[in-house]
Amino acid sequence: MNNKTLQQLVDKNFNNYKKGKVADYIPALAKVNPKQLGITIYDLKNNDRIQAGDVDVRFAIESMSKVPVLLLAIKDRGIKKVFETINTEPTGFAFNSIMNMEINHRKHPMNPFVNAGAIATTSLINGKDAKEKFERILAFMREICDDPDITLNKEIYQSEAKTGDINRSLAYYMKGNQMIEEVPETLEAYFKQCSVDVTATGMAKLAAVLANKGVAPWSNQRIVSEESATIVKSIMTTAGLYDESGEFSVHVGVPAKSGVGGGLMAAVPNSYGIGVFSPALDNCGNSVAGIQLLKDIVQELDLDIFK
Ligand code: GLU
Questions:
Q1: Which of 52, 116, 168, 307 could join 6 in a cystine, given CB atoms 3.0 to 4.6 angstroms apart?
Q2: Which residue ranges of the chain lie beneath pLDDT 70?
């Protein structure tokens, strides 16, 4: 595939934005222009990337942050501690549902990509306070996305913090069950990690590290262990797209993670890291045009891992 073929697929899928709507739970996301679609594909074989559309537009990482923060928590605390705190089971419940803990007999969050699990993951990040935790998360995101310009979007952060009562209730529920300790500190870091601005290209690079067994293909430096890259890809496969994860696995078939900022990344083992951005979302909170475009790419390049 070359830039021209990719551009044709972007053109073909562009109007899918009309089938969705941008996230409106906070004003800063509600005013994002829905008419955007961009994709970067990082090809591990040629160590090169192809791209088309709005690949340099900055957008809020939101739930895609759950991937780098999980990788950092594993680096900080080790696989055993992280997965004693958070399970790795898929869930059919909405991403912010308290049911993601209640139905589990051990009362631990079901997985690191539902909000309860993500908040518990953030609580495991090393750092003496919220500021230090978030600085470490930001530095790690910049490294794994190979993007020194990733910064906090203060407007989004303030809105997330102001409207985050469901997340607060999940956190206090976990504190009440001795699953996490510091609620305000953890939530400050969590709201901030969701509010950083990234690009489709940066997300493609993060996905490329996962696809490449933890090694950054652009520098040949190991960023995370092979084992953690494998685990995270498998959780992406079962729980990466909220309560649409099963359908996405059946119809697209690559490890992926979405965010309500309109981002979608896919890590195709040993071959590609893909970052997509289009802000109009379907009912489950996933990018409508993004999923359709990714589906076309997967078909075109024959990437379905279950084939
Ligand atoms: N900051 C959002 C929340 O915790 C994340 C939304 C998302 O991308 O799922 O509610």
A1: 52
A2: 102-106
